[in-house]
Write a structure and sequence with these properties.
alpha+beta; disordered N terminus; 2 helices
């Protein structure tokens, strides 16, 4: 049971990508604005060579957390966390 919980956390991680480089893999359902987006954010697209401010893309479980008020999310690399604003920029139907 504990292994399942730990593995589940690995597959529910936020991703930072700009509008020009949205995720092409994974079941990301919404993109939310990091604090200060677009002019004053330190969240930059994770695509190699890109330096455009990024949106924070969330999978279904994280999107649910967002809907109930969670505003801090972990990236898959565990290097840092990101705080997001209340604004949803993109939502998959």
């Amino acid at each position: 049971m504990m292994i399942f919980i730990i593995l589940d956390k690995y597959f529910n991680m936020a991703l930072c990508r700009c509008k020009q480089h949205p995720p092409t893999r994974g079941d990301y359902t919404i993109a939310v604005a990091p604090v200060g987006w677009e002019e004053n954010t330190s969240s930059i697209c994770g695509r190699a060579g890109c330096q455009i401010p990024g949106l924070i893309w969330l999978k279904e479980r994280e999107a649910h957390d967002f809907e109930i008020g969670v505003r801090i999310f972990m990236f898959a690399s565990f290097v840092t966390k990101v705080r997001v604003e209340d604004q949803v920029i993109y939502r998959k139907n």
